[in-house]
């Protein structure tokens, strides 16, 4: 049932007692969630998660909620003809992949044994009728495939694909089609290797750890690039998109990494006093025992030293020891500002032995309080649905100092792009909640009053031949090609008058229309596990239940409207992608909470003002605040339009841009794009006027137009800032001015974005607190006086050519 409100505005009050912009947010998630485990795979089955990998020795860890892994079971022993008699035992169970298909649980992993007796680096395949094992290898006389990091992906048509890494062009990702019995249905096809001159080759040619999902009709592969060793500190996660399972390639890669070390934000947001303390560039040799640097600037905050060292290095600043324990570590250490002198400063390094290495060193002038271990080398991803079935979660390894652990972070889809809310640690600021739990779980829906939009996840036990569901007058049964004797996992999404059903990941009912007024949900069969959670997931033309609104392939068409959907709740998340084809006008957004016409929280994008308006109305009196949507973001060139002479920086939608920040350190020495062939001792090229080396232009429709700019101060000696009259564009282009200049000059820049035609609004309500996000940036919190159930919805003044392209809503239940 929906309710339309045409008039909800009231006079604004000046007191902001109940509206808190950029407020402090509670942090719930604390990484790592499982210590001492590296390359691992995770599977969700019947309401539980199973994890195995490096240092699990043939065991699975088990969890109900992704955060607590308190149970451990032994499921496999490595004993086959091609490892017997070597040092390859259960300690060589690496990079597990766990799937369920055809009535069997499948365990694939890579043996990664580099011994003096033999090198054994292969993928093997074991099966079990139970997730608790024991798993037995299908063939003991030979391995399954070469070389490492296997993942089996089941497409919605039931076809299977194996993704793996071969040592061809460095570590390279390949894909191979399989039959339903896990035999191969064709040859392996190379997908991609790491791209030289990008963030993927900061040290070595490595592309590995592939993991593929399909969501909203698109295929997403997450993968790793760079060397995994923490002494490099460069291991990162990237994403590649494709239109089909075997079509991942360089052109589908995101230009940036989606998860990197938290040292990256430190470098971006702060001035390193060792390198830039004298407002000029001074390179540092980490091999030196004495490092001298000068500081001519005043400190604005508290100094912190980033210290990365291995093998025991004792570091002193101006004669005072900074790390008296001198343990191998990646740490951020607070420094007494009295130890830092204006003028000359000296750092001395005392190494315990020949293996002692200083890996990273910086002193930041920081305004935030932050100390402790740094997180780095995020990698070896697994992507799973959360406990409530609506959320996507990334499970991955990361280093806390030199120890590898398992982390989890939330995945969002913004403008169709996969975005990860991480890397997070106990020191991460902002709102990072734990995975939401289902509203109800058990073996039946007895006692549950179902809504008109919800998700059912049902696992039918083996030997349950009468598996079927009937919802809204539509009956769905087990297809004839699926075994009646096997267990099956059903995913059932009811969205008002629309039904979608998957069985064992196979799509068997595709957004079919049902009786919207019939809320009955009947389940037949022997249910092993069932979970229920209110919500809906809408995209393309798959919208239902929005009174009077129509959808096309671009999404829900929003004219002049205020429309609500769903039942009232006290904790929930609503995420909406707004696509404005006329981004110079329109006021539109969502209702974060609505009780009635006199009590609500409304979030509005004002295109003309390029700002976010937050209104909190209580008993007809409204408090209002405005937050500019302009922000500066790191921007990588799109390799589809980029080479040594020309760089193109693309936007996902029409974007208003008014300035650019250029690194003064040239691309060949930029750590994010360093040339692997460059002599390590080559003089770094620091350019006071990097902009003078290039011609700048912006894309106006299909025409490139020149940018006339002026240089202004950037506030950071490592960056040059140019400004120009605001342009509305989908791309910026930079070409070397001198035709004889063969240098890359730039790679990673920053663009100052005033407004974009596409914006993802997200509200996350937890009781009396509402967190408000725009394009994954938390811009406001609203504090409610009472924890009263409320509904959510959309609104628009009708002035813009506007669509809601992707909408996700679900009710949140806290961990239990």
TrEMBL record:
The record marks 149 as: Important for catalytic activity, responsible for pKa modulation of the active site Glu and correct orientation of both the proton donor and substrate. Keywords: Glycosidase, Hydrolase, Signal. It holds the Pfam family Glyco_hydro_43. GO terms for biological process: carbohydrate metabolic process. Residues 1-26 form the signal peptide. The keyword Phosphoprotein does not apply. The active site is at residues 39, 208. GO terms for molecular function: hydrolase activity, hydrolyzing O-glycosyl compounds. Transmembrane segments: none annotated. It comes from the Bacteria. Belongs to the glycosyl hydrolase 43 family. This is Family 43 glycosylhydrolase.
